[in-house]
Amino acid sequence: MKKDFLSILDIDKDELAGLISEARNLKDLRSRRVAHPKLTGACIALIFEKASTRTRISFEAGIRDLGGHAIFLTTKDMQLGRGEEIRDTARVASRYVSGVMIRAYRHETIEDYARYSTIPIINGLSDKEHPCQLLADIMTITEEFGTTEGIRVAWIGDGNNVCRSLVLSSAMTGMKISVASPDGYELPADVVERAIQLGGDVTLVHDPARAVDGTDVVMTDTWVSMGDEKEKEARKSAFNGYSVTGALLAKAKPGAIVMHCLPAHRGEEIDDDVIEGIQSRVFVEAENRLHVQKALLVRLLQPRFTS
Ligand code: CP
Ligand code: NVA
Question: Is 261 a pocket residue for ligand 2 (Cβ < 6 Å)?
Fold first, then answer.
């Protein structure tokens, strides 16, 4: 059976621990310039419906490190952009490559693709989740604190795709998550219920200061995700007061770290002195995308791929 990674819930606690451990091993090998061609000759397609810097570069560079080859595709250059059906594209690509990463506007597009694909599919971000980002975030927190168990995380801002993957990971990671969003921009209730039902520790509040009080990690993301551009002005006014500033960060634990998946909008969801400050782990977090996605590719493709 092929295994997909569409949601952070597509792996369990043991698989997560295995991925983080393999990612740390791959990070170490790379830092010592030890070759690790674990997917020699594998060809992996990267399909983008929307823009990307980190996801594209980290997947392409990571696949190269593993001895494979990445094919970068945008839907506007594919027949998909002219109306070819997903089910046809998925079946055709399954005969050419060993795996596909997709970034799409609608989560259902990726689910549809996975349904018709006979090779593993990875969600490179949808409107609902950003599970690869969460793997990197979990790795970053593990490196910092030695564990995720009992770590308190405050999410400031939009109850968006990244926030959803974070909250859904709570039971698996043992992280206690407090989400502060303005009225109308909270995580959907069913997501919170699901996370709690799974054994997660999740609290929704409106006051950022309350979420941050005594926390270990302060996380934020853009107020206007890709696809939300039409609501830009309304969002900017709704999120006024939901910025990670030095004053807000001062309410967290003294050793707290700051994370942001990037791209950042300085002066909006995060201040320049915070992102550039000593508590920021934003660039380690971005780097860890590379290592953890390599671990994921090895996990999904190595058992199936024969060079
Ligand atoms: N964090 C993230 O996914 O960045 P990109 O949109 O640049 O890929
Ligand atoms: N929430 C953001 C994340 C970008 C990596 C978006 O979807 O645009």
Answer: yes
Is 169 in the same domain as 242? Answer: yes
Measuring CA to CA, how many Å separate 91 from each of 94, 113, 175, 243, 256? 5, 9, 39, 45, 47
Ligand 1 atom index nearest CA of 226: 6
Q: Is residue 1 part of a domain?
A: no
pLDDT in tens, 24-33: 999 999 999 9
Task: Determine the atom of ligand 2 nearest the C-alpha atom of 133.
Answer: 5
* Cα 222 to averaged position of ligand 2 atoms, centre (Å): 7
For 97-136, how does the pLDDT look when each residue is reduced to its tens digit (9 = 90+)?
Answer: 999 999 999 999 999 999 999 999 999 999 999 999 999 9
12 and 126 fall within a common domain: yes
How many C-beta neighbours within 10 Å does residue 198 have?
14
| Total count of residues recorded for the chain | 307
106/22 same-domain check: yes
What CATH number is given to the structural domain containing 35?
A: 3.40.50.1370
